[in-house]
């Protein structure tokens, strides 16, 4: 078997397994009498180990899962009856929205156009869907007012697309890889 494929398969299994293990620490909505789940130190250590392994391959995703895991360990009752995969997906979407809004604001771009570009980004394509929308909503004057070291107007478009593609590859795609 190709080592890269087995690595991807193991990472997928680890992700699903981590979510399943964390879910086991969330009290079930039907268990009215269980105030706190019985902590199993072996299971806690196992989640921590898998999160450590995931952080080697995908530190961005591992950080989000780890923050959720810490919150659950502190107060599992706050998460009673909730589905961890949905909570994690919400956290991921919030992180992506914050990054895209910050990026749009710092480059004088429309946040919705940037989000559309991010959502339709295909790392295998050179020309991306949504480029025209981002270009049409770019505002160099706004960018100049918020940037401490603005690039020239001639380099503006190339600079923000380079920065946007870099941000997507380094910050966004790892969060979407499971």
Q: Unreliable stretches, pLDDT < 50, 5 or more residues?
A: 1-9
End-to-end separation: 20 Å
CA radius of gyration: 20 Å
- Give the CA-based shape: elongated
Structure description:
The protein is an all-alpha fold. The chain has 2 domains: 3-82, no CATH class; 94-176, no CATH class. The protein contains 8 helices and no strands. Mean pLDDT is 86; it is low at 1-9.
Give the helices and strands, then pairings.
Blueprint: H1 3-23, H2 41-57, H3 59-74, H4 84-107, H5 111-119, H6 131-137, H7 140-146, H8 153-176
Helix pairs in contact: 1-2, 2-3, 3-4, 4-5, 4-8
Describe this protein with a few key phrases.
8 helices, 178 residues, 2 domains, mainly alpha, elongated, 70% helix, disordered N terminus
In short:
With 178 residues, the protein is mainly alpha-helical.
